[in-house]
DNA sequence: CGGCTGGTTGACGAATCTCAATTTCGGTGG
DNA sequence: CCACCGAAATTGAGATTCGTCAACCAGCCG
């Protein structure tokens, strides 16, 4: 139960449970639905690693419930979260990832897994599927670029603000309300700041009436404009609007 | 000639020049070579925007010479470089990019451009091409993730170190030698730090004998290990090797 | 020569990191 | 049901790094 997860074989759901989740699978009219037949339903515990299928050369996953992170350890021991997967996200898990690990971070995490070879074979024959895969890739790329914008932010408040907005866009219970699927520690590693700074940023935004906490894991966005504009205050006398004299 | 480029139509090379560059095009035994027939050779000036073809719904590009950046302006006016393209890189340029701009940043920048529709059509029929496109996407994704690791670095020295190593891996004249294709300002925007900090980081690494400058645009890596290990010094008493008690 | 862009260095203030202490929360066992 | 434990979350204090402002140097071009 430490941060470094023990490597445990994910339990396959029982027949009954598998069918239950299989029904939640095909939520969109995607050509990818054709793959459902070769899908394996996996139910993982917190901190359990995903790529546990030595037979395959990687696999595509569709997250049904919970949350998954892709992370990498730096030489100095810090962990950097490279990607955060939420329900209804597709993602690829390669098996040759050296230092990269993909693991579940929410308590019941359920996902469907498709062997890469099968996907490739099917894509060879199915144009629509092939096109959707290409679209998916560009989506993934865009999401990663969004994260670049977050990490490139100057102040912690700015980073957190963008993070909350991005999260709301991806997984909003209701408009203006964000359910945090992960701990502050994960947020810190995602934003590449210390946990304490995350807390302070949250407190700061709260005290200025930009957000409001409901419990510790749910956040209401009160002033969206302020969040978008680097948290509402201009740090260190930076002059907005100019990029070149 | 300010930082904000004027929008100029890229000059198409003359027949002669086009043929010259076309010969430099197909350097690898890729199925993508089959696209060369529908390629347009573009020669761009510094700070010239790339997506200048309103007829298409985006296009793939192959960079032959020079350098290209994809960037986005923040609400506070700073520019974030999302991607740095070097010779022999493929990249996609979408036309609907709102705030994203793609522009040449080296003096003669030459690239081949393939209309997206044509690529898609061809990929429908050509399995090998389709597979290569998928491989290309995952390569782009990996490169973007590398950049995430760079941006997530704590100190400026660390960021710069990773940047130099990544650059060396991608475009090494010789082993241990890196030609900087861009200005300090571009590096700063890529690393999301101020120009001054970039200079100071370079000076710092130089004084500690980890790198050596040859002119201002060429860098020799003297101590690769030190670069990999967060610049060789442990900042603020961080203890390496541990991520969880 | 004068102007301009790119590059470098110094000083000061702001923001973050680390260490440390404290509080809250959830679950577990008596 | 309640006490207790550990993990998560929060807050404070001192140290460090980075951003801004400012000055200065080096090529380059007209």
N- to C-terminal distance of chain A: 54 Å
Order of helices and strands of chain A: EHEEEEEEEHHHEHHEEH
- Beta-strand fraction estimate of chain A: 15-25%
Q: Average pLDDT value of chain A?
A: 83
Helical element count of chain A? 7
Largest interface: A-B, 50 and 50 residues
Rg of Cα set of chain A = 20 Å
Q: Major β-sheet of chain A, in short? A: 5 strands, antiparallel
Number of strands of chain A: 11
Approximate shape of chain A: globular
Helix content of chain A: 25-40%
Poorly predicted regions of chain A are: 1-11, 237-245
Class from helix and strand fractions of chain A? alpha+beta
Assembly type of the shown chains?
Answer: homodimer
The side-by-side strand order for the widest beta sheet of chain A comes to 1-2-8-3-6
Write up this protein.
2 copies of one chain form a homodimer. Chain A is α+β, with helices and mostly antiparallel strands. Helices cover 36% and strands 22% of the residues of chain A. The first copy, chain A, contains 7 helices and 11 strands. In chain A, the strands form 3 sheets. The first copy, chain A, has a 5-stranded antiparallel beta sheet with strand order 1-2-8-3-6. In chain A, a hairpin with a 5-residue loop joins β4 and β5. In chain A, α2 crosses α3, α3 packs antiparallel against α4 and α5 crosses α6. The N terminus and C terminus of chain A are likely disordered. At the A-B interface, β5, α2 and α3 of A face β5, α2 and α3 of B. Chain A binds a DNA duplex (30 and 30 nucleotides) through α6.
């Amino acid at each position: 139960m430490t941060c470094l997860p023990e490597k445990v074989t994910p339990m396959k759901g029982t027949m009954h449970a598998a069918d239950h989740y299989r029904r939640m699978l095909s939520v969109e009219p995607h050509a990818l639905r054709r793959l459902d037949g070769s899908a394996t339903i996996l139910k993982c515990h917190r901190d359990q690693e995903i790529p546990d299928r030595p037979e395959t050369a990687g696999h595509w996953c569709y997250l049904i419930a919970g949350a998954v992170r892709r992370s990498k350890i730096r030489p100095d021991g810090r962990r950097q979260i490279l990607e955060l997967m939420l329900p209804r996200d597709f993602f690829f898990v390669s098996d040759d990832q050296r230092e990269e690990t993909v693991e579940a971070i929410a308590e019941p995490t359920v996902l469907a897994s498709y062997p890469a070879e099968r996907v490739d074979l099917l894509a060879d024959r199915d144009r629509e599927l092939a096109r959707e895969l290409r679209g998916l890739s560009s989506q993934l790329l865009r999401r990663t670029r969004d994260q670049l914008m977050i990490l490139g932010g100057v102040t912690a408040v700015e980073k957190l603000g963008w993070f909350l907005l991005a999260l709301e866009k991806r997984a909003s219970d209701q408009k203006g309300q964000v359910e945090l699927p992960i701990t502050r520690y994960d947020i810190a590693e995602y934003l590449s700041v210390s946990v304490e700074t995350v807390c302070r940023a949250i407190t700061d935004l709260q005290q200025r009436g930009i957000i409001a906490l409901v419990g510790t894991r749910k956040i209401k966005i009160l002033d969206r404009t302020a969040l978008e504009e680097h948290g509402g205050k201009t740090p260190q006398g930076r002059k907005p609007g100019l990029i070149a004299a």
